[in-house]
Specification:
With 275 residues, the protein is of the alpha/beta class. Helix content is 33%, strand content 33%. The strands form 3 sheets. A 7-stranded mixed β-sheet has the order 10-9-8-11-12-14-13.
Length: 275
């Protein structure tokens, strides 16, 4: 083991989830989430990741038409057993009947166990948006439903749907996320139907349930495609919506009936039905 390691702290001014997703495309190193700060640790230098994050902030500002900044702090530190420290920081979580746990924690009897070795908390059920989606799936998903998970990330919502008896397709614009989700299916001895790199526009059928846990701006941009992906009387579960944006999202999806608005802290999950 090297005597030192590198630690990069990344603090975005906004659009935290987009930065987190972007960092996952840059590295497979241990990543920790702590109160709005993303921490990357590695035995190799992290200056290229630091540069990439700064370039991404500028590109994001231009794309979204707002001033998005990012603070970074790169240090070389004395090497403690930070992998064990990281593992201790990732705790299992219960969401209704689900028990989501990393590989270093034993499964739980009488629960629906989902095994995820997360790089970030929002991929493991801890983040409010994932938590809300997991609750809503347990409430509205029916056995043998055909499900599409748009922006699958770690695949946790797809795996949860499968464990509830659904037949699942998933997609993500990030090729690495699609591969990671497939790996997590294998880790859980579960099977999906179809996956693809890209978004909802590439679908070839309609679904009983469509899940999109992204961010409000992207949900609004994809609104027509998401609604059209849902069968008549089908369900659309939307999340990743900060409370200050929920009215805008509701307005864009106003042709659908709101079945439920679930709020956890500052994040909303909406359940909509196609009329």
């Amino acid at each position: 083991m090297k005597e030192t390691y590198y630690e990069l702290q990344i603090t975005p001014s906004s659009e935290y989830n987009l930065f987190a997703d972007f960092i996952l495309t840059l590295t497979n190193e241990a990543i920790e989430e702590r109160e709005g700060v993303i921490i990357v640790r590695s035995e190799v230098e992290l200056d290229l990741i630091e540069d990439g994050v700064k370039i991404f902030a500028k590109s994001l500002s231009k794309a979204l038409g707002s001033n998005i900044s990012v603070k970074t702090k790169l240090e070389e530190k004395e090497n403690i057993d930070w992998i064990s420290k990281y593992q201790k920081s990732v705790q299992p979580i219960e969401v209704g009947d689900f028990f989501i746990h990393p590989s270093w924690v034993e499964k739980k009897e009488n629960k629906i166990n989902i095994l995820i070795d997360p790089a970030l908390a929002f991929g493991s059920g801890h983040h409010e948006t994932t938590y809300g989606c997991l609750l809503m799936l347990q409430k509205y998903l029916q056995k043998n439903d055909k499900v599409l998970d748009v922006g699958c990330g770690s695949g946790i919502l797809s795996i949860a749907s499968t464990k509830l008896g659904a037949k699942v397709d998933f997609c993500d614009t990030d090729e690495q996320a699609v591969g990671s989700a497939a790996d997590n299916f294998e880790l859980n001895s579960s099977k999906f139907c179809v996956s693809w790199v890209g978004s909802v526009q590439k679908r070839e059928k309609e679904y009983d349930v469509v899940i999109a846990n992204i961010i409000a701006d992207v949900l609004i941009m994809l609104s027509s495609d998401l609604m059209n992906a849902v069968k008549s009387d089908g369900i659309l579960i939307l999340s990743g919506i900060l409370d200050k944006y929920v009215d805008r999202v509701e307005k864009r999806f106003n042709s659908m009936k709101i079945l439920e608005k679930y709020k956890k802290d500052e994040w909303y999950t909406l359940v909509l039905k196609r009329q």
